[in-house]
Design a protein that fits this description.
Layout: H1 16-26, H2 31-47, H3 58-70, H4 76-93, H5 119-128, H6 131-143, H7 147-151, E1 158-159, E2 164-167, E3 176-179, H8 185-204, H9 216-219, E4 239-240, E5 247-248, H10 254-267, H11 276-289, H12 294-301, H13 306-309, H14 326-329, H15 340-343
Antiparallel strand pairs: 1-2, 2-3, 4-5
Helix pairs in contact: 1-2, 2-4, 3-4, 5-10, 6-11
Length: 354
């Protein structure tokens, strides 16, 4: 075995999980990645009776992943996430490049079609969701943003003059420009007015600022207290930063909106699984149905490869589109020539039935 962490600084933390956190933060991984990797490393260690990973290797990793897939029946994405966490542990934290790493079986991904709501279902959903979360839901559908991009919007990211919104730090740490729906302008201005009340209260109290990315709080010490950097959707109460322990004004939590969205789906009578991300799928599909070219939709979604966007074209081929079922062709053609008993199932669809 050989060390592959020569280009990385030595770890200062003594405990294993603290070492994982230290390395993740040095490499500028997101807080979500940190939380998931720490979770899987902890689960791996507990699964093997609190043995240190240095004393384990390929067989132990394989048995843990087999348990996840066989006993826990986790999804492929979850399986891959656990494997990535363990590879990070051995390569980046422990500095071990072991031969068995290249031999571990990777779960095969399956291509699944995205769930898409019809336009009337979107309208019913908006009618059913509570007023507190309506604007955020409309913004997800109207711009195609991911939920983490929408709740992380700052005041400076909304450009009313050019009718544009800047989605920051999307997947792959990429920024992109999306349209600002004209119909949402009044509601967004009202939301800004409500957010400014919280910002003003924080300033009068001389307290909480907002989180600043990439150590900008050291470069611009007052920026975290400025209105420009304040959240568009601030949380009503203060919260503690899990990395620094500093009390700050955070944006609304995605779990809160997800719960409200689930209740709205039930109230709207939508009998299919739907999540906030379904609004992004619906945004892309409805744009393609309206005739916008796929490259434009690709740019709005922030996809690096157009093949990712191509998955939304599946709806265009169905539902009254170019492909017609052969069963429908029987109506008015083969059905009239069938014996009466065989013709009965098609009677309701025959031209004379209208």
């Amino acid at each position: 075995m050989k060390s592959i962490t020569r280009s990385l600084p030595p770890l200062k933390a003594a405990k294993l999980l603290d070492q994982v956190r230290e390395r993740i933060r040095y490499l500028h991984y997101s807080i979500r990645t940190e939380q998931s990797y720490v979770h899987w490393v902890r689960a791996f260690v507990r699964f093997h009776g609190l043995r240190h990973p240095r004393d384990m290797g390929g067989p132990e990793v394989e048995s843990f992943l087999s348990w996840l897939a066989g006993e826990r029946r986790v999804a492929v994405a979850t399986h891959k996430q656990a494997l990535s966490a363990l590879l990070f542990l051995y390569q980046r934290v422990l500095g071990l490049d072991l031969p068995w790493m290249s031999e571990i079986g990777r779960p095969r991904s399956s291509t699944r079609l995205p769930a898409v709501l019809a336009r009337d279902e979107v309208a019913r959903l908006f009618a059913a969701i509570d007023a507190e979360h309506l604007l955020l839901a409309q913004l997800l559908y109207g711009t195609g943003m991911r939920i983490t991009e929408a709740i992380g919007l700052r005041v400076k990211d909304v450009d009313f003059e050019h009718r544009a919104v800047i989605a920051r730090e999307g997947k792959g740490a990429k920024d992109r420009l999306v349209m600002l729906p004209e119909v949402l302008v009044p509601a967004l201005r009202q939301q800004l007015a409500r957010a400014r009340l919280l910002w003003a209260a924080d300033r009068e109290g001389g307290g909480a600022c907002v989180y600043m990315p990439d150590a900008l709080d050291r470069k611009y010490p007052r920026a975290g207290a400025s209105w420009t950097w304040f959240w568009l959707f601030p949380q009503a109460s203060l919260s503690v930063d899990p990395r620094t322990g500093v009390e700050r004004r955070h944006h609304v939590f995605d779990q809160t909106f997800q719960r409200a969205f689930k209740r709205a789906v039930e109230r709207a009578g939508i009998e299919r699984p739907a999540t906030p991300h379904t609004l992004r799928h619906s945004f892309a599909t409805h744009l393609l149905q309206a005739g916008y070219d796929i490259r434009t939709v690709q740019a709005l979604l922030g996809h690096s490869d157009v093949s990712t966007t191509m998955i939304y074209t599946h709806v265009l081929k169905l539902g009254g589109g170019a492909v017609r079922s052969p069963l429908d062709a029987l109506v008015g053609e083969a059905a009239p020539s069938l014996p009466p008993a065989a013709r009965e199932p098609y009677a309701a669809y025959a031209p004379h039935a209208a």
